Amino acid sequence: MKIKIKYFTDVEPLKFIGGEKSDWIDLRCAEDVTLEQGEYKLLKLGVGMELPKGYEAHVAPRSSTFKNFGIICANSFGIIDNSYCGDEDEWRFPAIALRDTVIHKNDRICQFRIVEKQPYIVFKEVEHLKAESRGGIGSSGVK
Question: Which of 10, 81, 89, 100 is catalytic?
């Protein structure tokens, strides 16, 4: 699959981690940013893409994002659908600072993967589900 990408700044080009393929690809902050505790900002990521029809990008914080920068993603994770592909549609990361922080240009702050969109689904209402109950959320069924 080939995807057209536009770089909005001289942010480091995207690359796979550890070789030819990785499950997620890191995104970098495209500017120097200073945030105070409690502040919200859409952080520019310096890229835009033309995703193929039927695909979307899932954007999530890296596992070290909070440890390194004290920010969390305002939406838990983001969805960029294939219609967000115009010449000015730069990807962004909705950050909330939980402490005062400085993020530098090219710091890796989030990651993304490209996935197929959910297929059309028809829900069929039933009185009972046939599988055995597991005992609740977060439970292996052990009481």
Answer: 81
Q: 3-class secondary structure for the chain?
A: CCCEEEECCCCCCCCCCCCCCCCCEEEECCCCEEECCCCEEEEECCEEEECCCCEEEEEEECCCHHHHHCEEECCCCEEEECCCCCCCCCCEEEEEECCCEEECCCCEEEEEEEEECCCCCCCCCCCCCCCCCCCCCCCCCCC
Please tell me the distance from the alpha carbon of residue 62 to that of residue 24, in angstroms, as a whole number.
9
Task: Give this prediction's pTM.
Answer: 0.83
Q: At residue 136, does pLDDT exceed 80?
A: no
How far is it, in rounded angstroms, from Cα 97 to Cα 85?
Answer: 28
**What does the angle CA 45 – CA 46 – CA 52 come to, to the nearest 5 degrees?**
90
Which tokens sit at 60? Answer: 């999530």
Check if 23 is active-site: no
Mean pLDDT of 30-39: 98
Phi first, then psi, for residue 68 (nearest 5°) are -80, -35
Tokens representing residue 45 in the block: 């990521």
Task: State the average pLDDT over residues 10-37.
Answer: 88
